[in-house]
């Protein structure tokens, strides 16, 4: 007994009756004993019924004959499926996937009862000739034999006549778009040497299958098979590559049946620096620029992909030393910190996958070992794959001049730049139209790295209620000015003077003779007591309050009193307080306050600075 164990694939198999008319039909051997020939009564007369591991079982629907064979080629095994048609040559011990117009043909003695074998007329061997063409309709199916058990077919008796068409290699070429950066698609194209025949009329792929394979499926996966429909010669597929850490060649192969494969090389490239993108390309000292580094593709799962950054003038613009490309991303944002300059300065921000070389110092590389090293670095700058972008750093300009004053702070003149002052500071020249009212200094120096500075000054008193004064500043040919209004101020004693007992409780009508405390505030510039509004006027930190008190004693019918001065803290807005003694039963206490009695402060009105109040005890 002999087990059928070898699998062959063929491109085309024609009925025995038509084989003699095909030019590529091989010689037919002499028939020495009858053969069971099962033509195709239906498109699926001989089909696969089971696939277990590498063991494939098929059955001839016309005779019920069952046979098995092994498929050790995993790629071919992957193309088989239950219900797929097959053919078997039992005499030669060959089986294979059917690829011709004949659905199923079994040549040789089958494992069926002898009564099922239809004998043919005895013909001398020498008289055997190839049979003439017979129309398909004239072929009479053999009588259906009882179904055999599922076991290996055994070839018995002498060889029988068998005629096969030699399979033709239809593969032409395989081409892929190469190189491609990992993460991007590359088109794979398979081209046949001639149009595909129709092999499976009842299946979705009616033409031929081309088996494909990748040497690096984790980097460039390809489909197991491509279908080329009848009449077509090419089929394409997009290979979606994955990120790689280093440039990796991948062999893409395709073959038809078990003929030699055609190959092409797909070079998958590691992520490289593509470009640097800036939100703006012009900046001033102190600015921070937003930048984005673009890569040509995403990184692999590991190791991390990083790039080196650098500036051709680190004293003017600094960047991070390195950046790391995040997973599934092709961009990395970073910041450029711009330092102040005295003149317009151009520089470049560079990026590379390799460490950036250091350019030689201004004026040449010099001699000796250091000079040779600098020269080598300069050569590296010219040969390293570096992407760069140019930025222009401008010196700061004068943005504005501010003159300010108020109750709780002295008067100031300030200057502000639109960036930071360079090394040595920025000197802003100042001038005032009325130095007697706004005595601005001749200049103000803004310290290095700062963007503003101010100077204190004492405002003058205008002859009228107010006067407008222009203060001008100039820096690097840019002039800015501020129109400032100098005003006279006004203030009065509050209409209500607060009396409190020794415990701090307010007292409006004394009920006993315990000593009282009087506290007073001043009302400034017509505003409220918490947020005085005096315009741009400078007041001294304190104001003098003169007081006169008078206490009436009904028991004697006389009165007593005293006079003095209190100091009111304007800057801290603290009230002025003093003890005024107690009030006799039936008596009263009167107090009068006079703010700025010596007229030290110029006011719009000088006649509203007095206030008086009286409290009476029942």
What is the compact description of this entry?
This protein is mainly β and 618 residues long. Helix content is 3%, strand content 39%.
Describe the structure in your own words:
There is one protein chain. Mean pLDDT is 74; it is low at 1-44, 88-165, 360-383 and 526-537. The chain is 3% helix and 39% strand. With 618 residues, the protein is mostly beta strands. The strands form eleven sheets. It has a five-stranded mixed β-sheet, with no helix packed on it. It has a five-stranded mixed β-sheet with strand order 17-24-23-19-21, with no helix packed on it. A four-stranded mixed β-sheet has the order 1-6-5-7, with no helix packed on it. It folds into five domains: 6-138, no CATH class; 171-269, Immunoglobulin-like (Sandwich); 273-393, Immunoglobulin-like (Sandwich); 398-486, Immunoglobulin-like; 491-616, Immunoglobulins (Immunoglobulin-like). Strand 3 and strand 4 form a beta hairpin.
Q: Which features does this protein show?
A:
618 residues, mainly beta, Immunoglobulin-like, 5 domains, five-stranded mixed β-sheet, 2 helices
